[in-house]
Design a protein that fits this description.
- With 303 residues, the chain is mostly helical.
- It has one domain.
- 50% of the residues lie in helices and 7% in strands.
- It has twelve helices and five strands.
- The strands form two sheets. The chain has a three-stranded mixed β-sheet with strand order 1-3-2. It has a two-stranded antiparallel ribbon with strand order 4-5.
- Helix 5 packs across helix 8, helix 5 crosses helix 9 and helix 6 packs antiparallel against helix 7.
- It is globular, with a radius of gyration of 18 Å.
Amino acid sequence: MRSGVRGSSGKMPRMPRNLLRHVSSVLFLVLLSGCAINEQKEIEIGQKTHWQFEQEFGGRYPDAQLQTYVSGVGMNVARYAGRPNLPWQFAVLNSKQVNAFAVPGGYIYITQGLLFRLESEAMLAGVLSHEAAHIAHRHSVQQMQRAQTAQGLAMTAGVVGSLFGYGWAGDVTGAVASISLMKYGRDQEKQSDLSGLRYMTQAAYDPRGMVQTMSVLQQASGGKGGPEFLSSHPNPGNRLEYLRETIEKKYAGAAQGGKVGAEDFQRNVLARRVAAMEPAPVDAVVWCAHCHEDVRATIALKK
């Protein structure tokens, strides 16, 4: 997918040199070892890149109680993702973008810009479950492997640049990699939605929280989803439809008795909102930065 992170000029920003060096070194090691990225290599990629990634998105939100709360929700759903060997981490980034990220190796981030738009713990669990599912199914790793098999380091760096929300990865071998390389297909995105529903339901959350989150994003974008013929993934309207249908067929009991957690969310998140009280940026922003362009909910924030 194409990242929704744009500057005021409308151009896609370049990956900062320090982050590029980290990513490039890791990818070079991966390429030397062959095309297969096993779980240990995936973990290594995350360990060597996640800190720089955090810094490029404002660092972690400066509230220990809020971070502990979000991490607890994330770890609760990650228990059901089927990858117990990953060093799962969940954190809030101090960025006004409405966004969430899944970095290989189990590092999942939600920006304060998205977090403070939510209304309950179940909605938060829906976002984190979706991201956990991308990692559980190794979607980004699959894309990286395809890229390195096809064209080597330059394309692989381009994929990672797109994965991490950058339009261009930089000049690794003198080639410019296109952000369009990182496209998760309809099946992968739907798999993450449906697996995420299962994780949050097993964690005793009301699965309608995911639907509510998608509804908030759709409303914020003016109800406009990408044209379906331009994408292999359904627009937000179709997404809401299959999520609701799945809940009705498989998780009706959980929808009635699952945790919503509005009061807990109010106390641990919304009541602690400080930096987000500042005027939001007008730049277009996106939830699920690594998802297909027409999968994401692109939101034009208005003053």
